[in-house]
Structures are given as structure tokens and as C-alpha cells.
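thought: fold this chain, then report.
action: predict
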Amino acid sequence: MLIKIVKGSNAHGLCSYLLDPAKVSSANPISATNMAWSNPEGLAREFNWVTSRPRHRQVKHTMAHLAVSLSPGEHVTSTQMADISLKILDSMGYGKCPFFVTQHHDKESANGVQHWHIATTTIGVDGGWVKDSFSKLKLQYLARQLEQETGLTPLSIAPPSQRHNLTTGEYRRKERTGETLPKETLWDEIDRATNDHPTLAMLVTRLKASGIEVHLRQASDPGDGPAFIGISYAVDGHSFAGRCLGPAYSINGLQKHRQIEYRPDQDAVLTQLMEMNQAQCQQHLTDYEALQLLWKARYAHYSKVAQGGSGEPQGRRLDTDVAQLAASEGESTFSVVGILRQGPTAQAQRLNQGHYAALEYCQVIAHQLTQCQSIPVFQSTRKTLEIEL
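observation:
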């Protein structure tokens, strides 16, 4: 779970942004509130009535906008969303403030990320001012607490030291409108896409599938080294070099801080990906995920046959038996490697040693089985993407 907060003073701008018909469900956009109004104009008037009291006319930031995002693929019900939102408000000192909660159904939602927004004031209906010093740090601890209470998966994000701050102009724009800025969109999309430490090819595919443009800069003379030495991103017409987003977002930073795997033998795949559009990348991800599910089911079947209900063998011996069973039923060597990658031993290697260590482990077993040279990582456009992603 990721919780972010932005403060400003434009109640109408914030309400209009949060209740934009293009982003919310038209049926019932407000999922929780303690306010009387339900349209942007009425909500803004109600907020302004609370914040315009004489004793607080010198308060600069009268509005607070909290954005909550879950890990990809995780979802909570409307009731859970309301409960989480109330806990956030109470924990941060906004329990006596007017508020409303609305879930957005835009690009993030289309990519399997459930997220919602909370609008509130920094002044309570009792006239008290919310003193929320160190709010960003408090929200980090609160997110971890809520994850434990609700059983949600922790969302791994780059630490603040690996990010660049917004410019003064960008901060002022956020205070004025409450909108999510292009840099913030890129930070969040890249963090989500790198959460499981994929290969650079998988990262590029995921980002392009989500509507993020990715450009790789080639070395003038790569020699025996990697062909690509730089990366840049673009969203909604705004482009940024990776290093401008922060140390963790350059091509070297992705490898150092996010454990992204990149070797020169990925360059053929990356060159192909640069020529693909969003729809093509979405289709490749869909095909890839379907293939992984098929291979996972086949590994479960072959391992069950190999063990015969005894729970033995395990580890490499089990994988060898699985490979032999798969080959005996006509599976291609390519499929045998894919099936072995779904086993617990290969998955553990991928987690601890990386994608290529797991791939080479599976190839060695397939090589021993077929008594021929191990399968090249790159064979054709389709098989290249299936293996490399």
C-alpha cells in the first residue's frame, strides 16, 4: 500500500479533479463521506465554509489530498476502502474534518492497480487546526500497519533518497490543482513495474503496455558491452531522462537500486520491443501470462506423477524427473525449459540469484536430457519474448 499526501488551498480545483467524470464511476462516485453535498461546487462551498473562519485565515494550506494505491492485482471492497480511509483520517488527525472518498477508474485501474483519493480540510468542524508534522513519514508507518491489519501485500517503492524532488513550479501546480503530475505518474508506474525485480525487457514491456513511452539510448561503440546505455520515459506528452527522475531510474540505477537484470544478450529483444506499440505490448504480456499459467499447470501435473503421492523426490532430482516425463509426452525442449521454470527450485533461484541463474539451471537439465546443446535464449521473435520476459 502506498499513501501520499499533498496540501493546498484550492478546494474547488481539488474537488473538480477528484470527481472528473473521466476518472470516476458515474453511478456513485463518492464511496464514503460525512458531507451533505455530492457535486464539486457544493463540496467546495462546504469545505470553504469550514476553512474560512477568522482564527484560521492565515493558514496557508487549508486542504489535504491523500491518495491510496494498492499493489497490482490486489483489491478491497467498498466497505474495506471506507474503513481504511477512516483509519487514515483518524490516525493523521483529520477525524474531525469534513471529507469524501472517491475511487478512480483510469489508467492505473486499467493496469490492475486499485487506487482511491481522500479530500479533507486541515481545519476541523470544531475549529481546530490539524498539526500533522512529518506527515509523509507517518504515512509510511501507517501504510505498513494497515497492510498487516488487512493482509495486503507491502508495496516496494524506491526510498526518497533515490528520487528527485519536484521543482518549485511543480509543487505550486500540485497545491493549486491537486492533480497527479507526470513525474509522479512515472515514479509510481516504474516502481510497480519493478516490484518483482524483472529483466529490463519485461520492464520495458510492462511500461509500454501501461501507456508509458520508453526510449533506450544506444552506445556509439558498444564493442562487447551492452548496446543500450541510457533510458528515458514519457507520459502525457512529458518526457524525462531516467537520471532526471532520480538515481534509481537511470539504466544503471535500475540495475543497482531495483535489481533489474540486463545483459547484452537482451539487446535483440529490446530492439524488437522498441518497435512495438502499446497494444502489441499488452498482447505479448497477455500471451506470456497465459503461457506461464499453462506451464505451471503442467509442472504441477508432472511433479504429482513423479512423486506419486510420497512427496519425494524434491529439488533437482524432481525437476529431472519432470523434464523426462514432459519429454516423453512430446513436449518440445523449449517447453521443457518453460515448465521447469515454474518449479519451486527455479523460482527460488530466480528470487535469490536472478532470472538468468534460474534460466540456465533449467537449460542445463534440458541439455542433459536431450544430450544436445542448450537452447539459445533467443530463437525467434515469439520464443524470445516468451523466455526473456
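thought: worth noting. DSSP finds 17 helices and eight strands in the chain.
final: C-alpha cells above.
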